[in-house]
Write a structure and sequence with these properties.
Helix content: 25-40%
CATH class: Mainly Beta
Number of strands: 14
Order of helices and strands: HHHEHHEHHEEHHEEEEEEHEEEEH
CATH architecture: Sandwich
Radius of gyration: 20 Å
Family: Belongs to the iron/ascorbate-dependent oxidoreductase family.
CATH superfamily: B-lactam Antibiotic, Isopenicillin N Synthase, Chain
Protein name: Fe2OG dioxygenase domain-containing protein
Bound molecules: N-oxalylglycine, nickel (II) ion
Number of helices: 11
InterPro entries: DIOX_N, IPNS-like_FE2OG_OXY, IPNS-like_sf, Oxoglu/Fe-dep_dioxygenase_dom, Plant_2OG-oxidoreductases
GO molecular function: L-ascorbic acid binding; metal ion binding; oxidoreductase activity
Number of domains: 1
Organism: Vigna angularis var. angularis
Structural class: alpha+beta
Length: 375
């Protein structure tokens, strides 16, 4: 092969929008319910063991940390300390006073609800393609035997803009694309403020953090959980940790669904009106060598109401090299993770089904058997 051809191929590849991972097409859950609200096919039914009903710990919900972004961003020491504790002990916190306008959140919720109510033929115009997770459908399905989640989703890469597959951005309802753009750019601003506070409490020079996120990769996923006739038998979303740096999630106001792993049990994150739920992703766990935890979480469904949630995953760029920061390692805290190219880590994880935190093994050093960070 001549050099010219190589260069040509390279240029073509660079201009193409990258893909992330294939997923096996599966039935649309909203349609299953539409056709027969009482039916729960066997492929969705989980064992009691997997559901861990005995480990339900709703009494701890009120202890999930709540952080005031206005205080945090002006460097308030108590609030920074709260953030440190939240990242160490919970991996999750709710953010209030974030400045994202109520009207904008409402527009997002109205437009998304309208989109999911469209006939399936209309939504299928934006269906995920077989080799990638962008679009409308279900991701992380890797085998015909896998037990499926009781949810559908619309997943779009929002940044960098040249990664967008605009043909998969819904044109109905009118204005939905603009609302997605406006909402995600506001939440991006919140994410930058949180990242700046994180670099402060991680005692990391801001340029290190910014260096990994010069051209952040960002995915926006709208999760749709239809009601389920037997919610105690299914999961809306399998237990997993997020491969992101941080994730910012807006939930419906008055419906529980998100549950997080804490002290061996499952704690529901009760929605606070207008708050954003933020969680530490795998990247922060790796950077801090396990000091901050990327905590496992899942979504449950309920009998009478649908639930929609809006997750913005903020990630390093594909070429960023992620490894524990030097000052996080010492004799008591030996290095747990090896250096990974972020794009490789992400794609390796996405090729697997969501299964707790097993995917972080991709970055685990072989000799580290303590698994401190792997809670
Ligand atoms: C996710 C997620 C939780 C929820 O999208 O990664 O964890 O409550 N969502 O929808
Ligand atoms: Ni998640």
């Amino acid at each position: 092969m001549s050099l010219n051809v190589d260069v040509e191929e390279l240029v073509t590849e660079m201009e193409e929008v990258p893909t992330f991972a294939p997923s096996i097409p599966v039935p649309n859950v909203q349609e299953i319910v539409r056709n027969n609200p009482l039916q729960v096919p066997q492929r969705y039914v989980r064992s009691n063991e997997e559901l861990e009903k005995v480990n339900h710990m709703p009494h701890l919900s009120s202890e999930v940390p709540v952080i005031d972004l206005a205080l945090l961003s002006c460097g308030n020491k108590d609030e920074l300390l709260k953030l440190d504790v939240a990242c160490k002990e919970w991996g999750f916190f709710q953010i209030v006073n974030h400045g994202v306008k109520k009207e904008l959140v409402q527009k997002m919720k109205d437009a998304a609800a309208e989109f999911f109510e469209l006939p399936i033929e209309e939504k299928k115009k934006y269906a995920m393609e077989s080799n990638d997770i962008q679009g409308y459908g279900q991701a992380y399905v890797v085998s015909e035997e896998q037990i499926l989640d009781w949810s559908d989703a619309l997943m779009l890469v929002t940044c960098p803009t040249r990664y967008r597959k605009l043909r998969l951005w819904p044109k109905t309802p009118e204005g939905f694309m603009d609302v997605i753009e406006a909402y995600t750019s506001e939440v991006r601003r919140v994410s930058k403020e949180i990242q700046s506070s994180l670099s402060e409490i991680m005692e990391t020079q801001k340029h290190v953090f910014l260096g990994l996120h010069k051209e952040s990769l960002e995915g926006f996923r709208v999760n749709y959980y239809p009601p389920c006739n037997t919610p105690e038998q299914v999961l809306g979303l399998s237990p997993h940790s997020d491969t992101s740096t941080i994730t910012l999630l807006m939930q419906d106001d008055d419906i529980n669904g998100l549950e997080i792993r804490h002290k061996g049990g499952w704690v529901p994150v009760t929605p606070i009106s207008d708050a954003l739920v933020v969680n530490v992703g795998d990247v922060i766990q790796i950077l801090t060598n396990g000091r901050y935890k990327s905590v496992e979480h899942r979504a449950v469904t309920n009998k009478n109401k649908k639930r929609i949630s809006y997750a913005l995953f903020v990630c390093p760029e594909d070429d960023a090299e992620v490894e524990p920061l030097d000052h996080m390692i010492d004799a008591q805290n030996p290095k747990l993770y090896q250096k990974v190219r972020y794009g490789d880590y992400l794609r390796q994880s996405m090729k697997r089904k969501m299964e707790g935190k097993t995917h972080i093994d991709v970055a685990m050093l072989e000799h580290s058997d303590t698994r401190n960070g792997n809670n």
